[in-house]
Every structure is written in C-alpha cells, then in structure tokens.
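Lab notebook, bench 4. The sequencing result for the construct came back, and we need a structural model before the next group meeting so we can plan mutations. Quick request posted to the team channel:

Model the 3D structure of this chain.
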Amino acid sequence: MPPIHALSTEDQQSLFNDIDRSFQLSPQDLVDLTKAFLHEISLGLASYGQPMAIMCTADYLADSVDAFLTTHAASAYGDSRDTDVVHLGLTFSFPVEQTALGSGTILTWTKGFSAKNAIGHDVVKLLQDAFDRKHMHVKCIALVNDTVGALLSRAYTAGGCILGAIFGTGTNGAYVEEVAKITKLANSPAAAKGGHMVVNTEWGAFNNCRSHLPFTPFDNSLDRVSINPSFQAFEKFISGMYLGEITRNILISLIDASPKPLLFSGKSTPTLNKQYGLDTSVMSDIEDAWEGPNRSLSGDQPAPEFAKFDATSLPPNISKKLERIRSVVVKQFGFQDAEVTLKDAAIVRWACSLVARRAALLSGVAVATVLFQTGRASFADKDGKFPAHTDTEKIGVGVDGSLIEHYPNFERTLRESLRSLVGEDIEKRVDIGMAKDGSGVGAALCALQASKQLKQGSS
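Done. Here's the predicted structure in token form:
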C-alpha cells in the first residue's frame, strides 16, 4: 500500500488521492493475502499455541438461565419431584483451547471485552459451578463457538454447510476439515478414527504480525489505543466494532488538515471527538442514503475531484443523494444545519465507502481461503485462467452478523472479491445463507446431539 504523509499539503486533491489509494486492494493484493491466510491456517492445524485455530459473569448467566427456564420450560422446572437434568449448550464467542465437547480454556478476549481473571480457566466449569451453587438441575454438555453454531444451524436448515462465518461486531469462521489434515492430532483417538472435524479458525487474529494486511495511519491509530494492541489484526479491518472508528479517524484527520481544513471548515463535535463516537450503523445509514440497498459500492472508483467540487453544477439526482446524506450527518454527528455543506456530505460518503468496501473485500479473502484449504477451489494460472471444475454441487456457507445482514451491498462486494480469487464458476456455486441467531440454534443442536451420545453411552 502507498504511504500516507502527514495531512499537510497545498494540493488538496493529492491528499484525497493518497488516502483513496491506501484503501484499494488489487486482485494481486487479494491473492497474496489469501496465500498468507492459508499459511497461517496450516500452522494452526499443525501445532498448538498458534493465534489461529486454536468468571464474574457466570452467576449472571446462571440467573438468566434460571429465569428463562422458570418462565418458559415445558415441564415443571424447579419442582423438587422433577430430578431430570436440563442439558445446555453454551455459545462462547471468544478464543478457547477446546479439549472436549464440554470443556474449553479461555485464551484471550476480543471485540473490546476484558475480564482478566477468567483467562486460563475452563469457561464451562465456571458456568457449571454457578449452576451448582444455585442448586439448578442444569448441566452444560456442549461448548460451541458462534461460528460453529452458525455452521450447524445452516447445515440443519439447508441440508449441508462447510463454513460458518460471523461478520458482525467481530468476525470469525469455522469450517469442516479432514481429520487427516489436522496433523497436530497425530496419534490421538480422533486421528485414529479419521473422518471430519469442525475447526474454529479464530481468523480475527490473522496476520497479527502485520506482514500482509494493508495498514494505514488510520488503522494504526485505532490499534494503538485499543485494549489489545497488535492483536486481532484482521478483525480490526473488517468487523462492525471497528469500521466506524477507522472512518472517524479519516474524518478527524481531514478536519485537522493544514494549512487549510478539508472538512466541516475545521469544526468538530463531541461525537466526532470521542473514541468510537461514530458507530458503524451510521455508516450504513449514509450508504443507504446515497445508493439504496440494491446498488453496488463504488469505492473502487478514483477519489472524486473534491478540490473542484461545485454544488451549483451537480446533477439534480446527485444533489438529492447528497442532501439526504447531509441530513444524516447533521443528525448523527451533532452539527448545526448550516455547518454541513454538500461537499462535506460527499467527503463523508466517500470515506465510509472506502472503509466498508475494503472490509467486504477482505471478508471475501477469508471465505476464499476456506475453499482453497478444502480443495474446492484453485488459484488462477499465470494467464489468469481458472482450472475447469465439473462439480456443480452447491457449496454451503452459513453467515450471521449485522454487517452481512444489514450493511448495504456488503455481500455483493464480498462476492466480488471471492469471484476474483476463485473464478466465476466456483463463486456461483457458493450458497451464502443467513443462519439467523445461528449461534444459539447451533448450540442447542450440538447439545441435543451430545445428549443423545450420553444416553447411548449409558445404555
């Protein structure tokens, strides 16, 4: 990616152009990132302790389960005559070292959460201890990551699924892998049994070493003041928790530019001055105001000529779009109406599009990596031609999360990236379907299956 100098220049347009270029990803950039992704997955499958592929709230959770069962249970939960144990599946959306279906040690926190005393402890035991303290007839028998839940839920409703992915506040993916490829399981009962196993990649930690991801000063600023600097690098590029903050960093830099501010006449608001003051949902509102839900993002176009912007010469349809965006900016940023111009609205929309488009393209890299890893896709040759595939079966991908569900055209741009990496024929076979509330549904399905296995083992 091209370097960005300090935001001080006499040539305003060159500054916009530099920022724009730093957020672009060429087809070769996507290929290089995918190959790096594959390398990290192979490391995770080969050994333990890798960033990828690897409690004070317990009483609150126990109370919540107790309240739910008291009001919703089909049978008389809590009746002293009813000694049946209620089996529970726990969705835990943070990295764990899972040693059994119902056991997992917390490795670290992500998505802005932090509870240091829980790290190194078995999350299932913490919850089970809380149940036992409250004399509840509940046993946690299955620990499921939310991505595994999405995979199981989609497989149940669609008849098959090879990848469960979350593109929301955070991001992660779990896929179905051949046990023979998981070499760190050598000489284990699982390896002897063979077959397939669901692998939780924890791909939010991809490229923590910062060798391939296209960092800009705006990403570096976000990472530096985060609660986990230098960790969850990939997640900070594409998840809903962080996109608004990256965009805010761009806008603040334009407000502070010298010798002349380039946005809002140098004025700011408490919302813009506050860390994480700009929510990703506001970016979504701005994209909706500009393009509506059925049109593609246009961040791949060169930066508009903001230095020559003339509101009086705009086509009427563009003026209407920018006026809608201006209204969103005034309301959500906290400006007075007269403080925001149509040019300001155009710049804000451009910044939102840059950040969101890059996130969606990188999300496509993650999906493509799983297709390569499982042998369902191949890279193009030196002439840009993809190998012919005779298989026509759909490739099931279950997704959940606010970005993939609500952000305008996020899936469309993800597919653009996927098509560039695996070819149109493979991309068309990828059946991306929502696994709405998949984390909870998947955990319930896993607990049901675990319960059946327990009954079979005792009979």
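The longest helix spans residues 342-373.
Will bring this to the meeting.
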